[in-house]
Every structure is written in structure tokens, then in C-alpha cells.
Design goal:
CATH architecture of the largest domain: Alpha-Beta Barrel
CATH class of the largest domain: Alpha Beta
Helix content: 40-55%
């Protein structure tokens, strides 16, 4: 007996979330869930996949045209106006479907193929339903193929973490490591994040990938010396997701890692996109015992006064500032000196990022950076390589 999986993506929901805030967005999602439940029968079951994605499982899809009729009914009902806190909101829905076992013999494959069909539906103008078609899939563009591969990578956990040491400027001891993501694709080889993170963000796969990174990093570092911390980069979409704090708590619980050993790195983009939610997230992380680092300071529009209004544990300087200071750029020197002095007065640590050469190492230390990170002390490396650094005496790390 054939079954079917329908993947539903809400059109224009992000605009509601960005303009009216997450509380309104959450209420809107609750109304969407309510409308879906009304449409369900004994032959169907619905659920939320995460973010603004929902799904419907059709147990018996043998009736001709049943999948399309159900999809059209869902699109019609979800496209009717909503009323939330005196706002009348109009969104829509796009649906991709896959038929099992013809389009996939496993749950993961069926979900991936439904997602490929959903991509076609959205590309075709949104507000419509597209069924998976293997022939069309073969002719799809590079982005669609990459998206499908990334979806499969999430299901198969084709990712790994490497770690880059962060050392104390005075003792040269490893005090923390930054967890860095790599994708080991069977077809494309080992991919760096710049090849797939933008797509992961667009498709919201970043939420699943980010949760995996948190859990894996905490598990790895829990077995290392207790003074070593792990820094995990978090995208603005991930940090603003309502489930983010739950993911952090889960990662700490399953790994047994003390919260004080987890550092969450964010950029100023999170505070520009949703200041209220960003501040609330930061406060909740601190309440858990975790620390928060502002990454890439100097790369955007953040001012020094911005640092005074938030409770960061550390400030990580953008690579360009360190490079500029080493080349004698007066503005870079002044910025680093000012940030380091302010950080010290606020009991924050200044981290020099991307220290590669002896002049860069010397200027970072001279201007007051308390921690150093870069290939001068080792590039991204496997966990086994990091472990060999823990007990090295001062001065034996490579600095060139």
C-alpha cells in the first residue's frame, strides 16, 4: 500500500517574524497547526518539523488524485487571513510531496525527495504543490542538487568537527578550542563551511546542523581536561530560534559538560535583526552558566559603546584589524588598543583572531590581547591532534 509524505513551507512567514517579532510569529504558528489538525482524518497525521515547516503523512495514498486534493485543501486553508494581536496577517503555503516506496524506500529518502519537490514548488511561484519527479530531479540546477545533498547529509550525519586552539597570551597554554564544521560529502569530498552554510541558512537546515554541532562539540570536550572550554559559532537564525536554548540545555545534559566550559560565539547581526530576542537569549545563556563571545568585532558597524550595553565574556577581534595593525595602520592600532582597554575595565577578554605571523603575534600582545588564535598556534585540527597540545610547556608551540 503506497504512502505519501507532504512537506509544507509557509510563504511570507519570515516577514511576519522579522517585523512583528517572535511572540506574534509563535501565535501564528499555533493557528496554522490548528487549521492543519481540522483537515486531518484517520488516514492522515500532521506535525511540525521545525521553524515554519510542517508535514503531513498520508498512510494510504492509493486513491488517484488524493495527494493533490489534500495539498490544495491545505494551501487554501492556510492562505486564509489570520488574526493575531489586532493584526490581520496573510501568509501562504507551498507543498512538496513524495510517494513511498516509489520515491523512497526509507523515511530519510522520502523526506529528502519531498523537500526537493518543495523547492520546485517555491521556485515555481509559491502557493502551489509539486510532486517529486525523478526525471525533473536529474535536470535540476546545481543549487537544487546541493540542497538535496545537504538534506541527505543532515539525515546521514556526514559532518565532522575540527578544532582550532585558543591560547593564553602570557602562558601559551591552550585555554579553549573553537569547534569548526566540515562536510564529508561522498560525491564532492570534504567541504568547508563557505560552500554550504549560506544554503543551510536559506533552507533552515542550519537549525538541525547547529543542534548537531552543539551536541558533538560538548561530547568531545567533556572528555578533555576540565580547564579547557569549547567555543561554538551560532548563526543569527539559530540563536533567534525559540528552540535554541533547549538545544543548548540538551547538549549539556547528554554530554555532561559543565555549562561554564561552553562558549557561544555570536556576531552583531543577531542584535540588528531582533534586539529584544537577542538580549533575552544572551541573558538566558548567562543564567545557564555559559559565556557569550562577540565574534568578528570590527568587521561590521558595532561601536565600542555597543560593548558596554551587553554582558559578553569575550570580544574576538576581526582578522582584518590584526592584519592592519601589523602593517602599521593607525586606525587599526587605535581600535584594538581601545577595545582591549575597555574589555579589561568590563572584565572581558580580548581575543586576537587570525594571528599568522610573528609581527601579528607581537602587535596583538603589545596592544593588550589576552588570548590568541590563528595558525601561529595551529590551524584547525582533529581532536587527537588537539589533545597533544594540552601538556606542552611554554614556548614549544609553532609561531610561524
Amino acid at each position: 500500500m503506497p504512502c505519501a509524505f507532504l512537506m509544507i513551507d509557509l510563504d511570507r512567514f519570515k516577514a511576519v517574524n522579522d517585523t512583528l517579532g517572535h511572540p506574534v510569529g509563535d501565535q501564528l504558528l499555533a493557528q496554522v497547526a490548528g487549521r492543519l489538525k481540522v483537515l486531518m482524518t484517520r488516514n492522515t497525521v500532521c506535525g511540525r518539523l521545525g521553524g515554519d515547516e510542517f508535514c503531513v503523512v498520508l498512510r494510504d495514498a492509493s486513491e488517484l488524485g488524493l495527494i493533490d486534493r489534500l495539498a490544495q485543501a491545505i494551501i487554501s486553508d492556510l492562505s486564509a487571513p489570520y488574526h493575531v494581536e489586532n493584526h490581520e496577517l496573510s501568509i501562504g503555503a507551498s507543498i512538496g510531496s513524495a510517494l513511498g516506496p516509489a520515491d523512497g524506500g526509507t523515511v530519510e529518502t522520502l523526506m529528502c525527495n519531498a523537500d526537493v519537490a518543495l523547492y520546485r514548488a517555491k521556485r515555481g511561484g509559491r502557493g502551489c504543490h509539486a510532486a517529486f519527479d525523478a526525471a525533473v530531479q536529474d535536470e535540476s540546477g546545481p543549487k537544487a542538487r546541493l540542497e538535496q545533498a545537504l538534506q541527505m547529509a543532515v539525515a546521514r550525519e556526514e559532518f565532522e568537527l575540527v578544532y582550532q586552539p585558543v591560547v593564553d597570551a602570557m602562558t601559551e597554554r591552550v585555554v579553549s578550542v573553537e569547534a569548526l564544521l566540515r562536510w564529508n560529502s561522498p560525491d564532492m569530498g570534504r567541504l568547508l563551511p563557505d560552500r554550504f552554510l549560506t544554503l543551510a541558512d536559506e533552507t533552515r537546515l542550519i537549525l538541525q546542523i547547529g543542534a548537531w554541532v552543539l551536541t558533538q562539540a560538548c561530547r568531545q570536550v567533556a572528555g578533555w581536561p576540565g580547564n579547557v572550554r569549547v567555543a561554538v559559532n551560532v548563526s543569527d537564525q539559530q540563536a533567534l530560534d525559540p528552540a535554541f536554548i533547549d538545544h543548548v540545555v540538551t547538549a549539556l545534559m547528554v554530554s555532561g559538560l559543565a555549562p561554564q566550559r561552553l562558549e557561544i560565539e555570536v556576531t552583531e547581526a543577531i542584535f540588528q535583526r531582533d534586539p529584544a530576542t537577542a538580549r533575552a537569549t544572551l541573558d538566558r545563556l548567562i543564567a545557564l552558566g555559559c559565556s557569550v563571545t562577540l565574534d568578528d568585532f570590527g568587521a561590521g558597524a558595532a561601536s565600542i559603546s555597543f560593548l558596554c550595553s551587553l554582558h559578553f565574556a569575550a570580544i574576538k577581534l576581526d582578522r582584518a584589524l590584526i592584519k592592519g595593525a601589523a602593517l602599521g595602520n593607525a586606525e587599526s592600532v587605535a581600535m584594538i588598543r581601545a577595545v582591549a582597554a575597555l574589555a579589561e575595565s568590563l572584565e572581558m577578554v580580548t581575543i586576537a583572531k587570525g594571528v599568522e605571523t610573528e609581527p601579528e603575534l607581537e602587535i596583538a600582545c603589545a596592544l593588550g590581547c589576552g588570548r590568541l588564535q590563528g595558525i601561529a598556534y595551529g590551524g584547525p585540527m582533529a581532536a587527537s591532534e588537539i589533545e597533544r597540545l594540552f601538556n606542552r610547556p611554554k614556548g614549544v608551540l609553532q609561531t610561524g
